[in-house]
Amino acid sequence: MKFNWVHALNWKVMLLRIVINGLSLALIALLFPNIVIKGDNLLLTLLILGAALGVLNAFVKPIIQFLTLSLLFVSYGLVVIIINAAILAILSWLFPDLLEIKSLLAAFIGGGLIGLLGMFLEYVLGLTPPIVDDVPVSD
């Protein structure tokens, strides 16, 4: 039996995560004047940045988390804010014409808020399954 990537890829979830990433970046740029989203077409810019942030979160972030695993436990997870700030800085470095971070403090605050906003929006939009299933277990 041949594996079909088209059926295995959940494109709706992928598109929703791109929108969530773009919306998180837009909210952070609205809250902090030191994080600037540039570009002629704001919607297209946010979609490009959201897709790139998703790729970085999927491939680069786990590698950094693995390399800083001992620090993750010692700091009770506060290293995740530094990792998110690094991912945000990498995104700004990859797309200097679309995203500008003017200070290190803005990168740290933006990194912390990226994680919180992303988690909140994923929960509100139904991408995160509940911890306890609401369907009763029958014997």
Comma- or semicolon-separated keywords:
single chain, 139 residues, mainly alpha, two-stranded antiparallel ribbon, globular
Helix amount: 55-70%
Class inferred from helices and paired strands = mainly alpha
> Shape, please?
globular
What's the helix-strand series?
HHEHHHEH
Whole-angstrom Rg: 17 Å
**Strand sequence of the main sheet, in spatial order?**
1-2
Strands, total number: 2
Q: Indicate the multimeric state.
A: single chain
Query: How many DSSP H or I helices?
Result: 6
Question: Tell me about the biggest sheet?
Answer: 2 strands, antiparallel
Q: What is the count of distinct domains?
A: 1
The residue ranges in which pLDDT falls below 50 over 5 or more consecutive positions are none
Give the mean pLDDT: 87
Proportion of beta-strand residues: under 5%
Distance between the termini: 36 Å
Account of the protein in words:
By secondary structure, this protein is mainly alpha-helical. It has one domain. The chain has 6 helices and 2 strands; from the N terminus they run ααβαααβα. The chain has helices spanning 5-8, 11-31, 42-67, 69-74, 79-94, 104-124; strands at 35-37, 99-101. Strands 1-2 form a two-stranded antiparallel sheet. The longest helix is centred in the middle third of the chain and has 26 residues, at 42-67. It is globular and about 55 Å long.
Question: What is the element layout, followed by pairings?
Answer:
Layout: H1 5-8, H2 11-31, E1 35-37, H3 42-67, H4 69-74, H5 79-94, E2 99-101, H6 104-124
Antiparallel strand pairs: 1-2
Helix pairs in contact: 2-3, 2-6, 3-5, 5-6
